[in-house]
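Troubleshooting: if your tokenizer reports a length mismatch, compare your output against this known-good record of 201 residues.
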Amino acid sequence: MFEDRDLKVLLGNSIREPEVDYDDDEVASETGYPVEESALRQFYFVTIVDHMNTPDFKSHYLTVMPHVRLYTTKEQQQLAFSILDELPKKYNFEFSIKFDLYNQQDINELYKFIEFVEYNHEEFIVDVWRNLNVKPDSLNIERYCKVNEQKILSEIEEQLTILHVSEMITDFLRTYNKEDLIEWFCKKSEILRTSILIGII
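Known-good structure output:
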């Protein structure tokens, strides 16, 4: 009946178990509905994790993140660790550095990282293309990426020395499997074709 896991989580976790005494939880909760609060939180978290590396990630992410940011650091850690667990499955990537996700600052950095990987990378990618000295009138992004992998990798590294990017993003761009990095760069460049052409003219 329901194809999306996030809806299953929301509906399934909203049902109270008859044998459980919820009195203490009701007093501790903000609304007096602890089961429903927990179900909604899990719905937000699953919505983000399940849509990683999908075309509609951005719309789902931007819809639920304002709610996610209202949760405590401890509650947001659940999402942070879920994102880390999914990185190898969704992107074939793991950080080479161990990050401390027990403080809000590092959790926020993880959010910025996933935003960069998914959609918030236009400035970086356009800057790389601007410095590759390509001709806008004959630009075939896919073909260029296949023929000039090393040149692109060198320019990405060069941009890391110029721009201020977070340690997580730097780790991704420096340690990601080179073939996967070129594939990511090419795929995102195709989406940003118009911005790239404007940037290199």
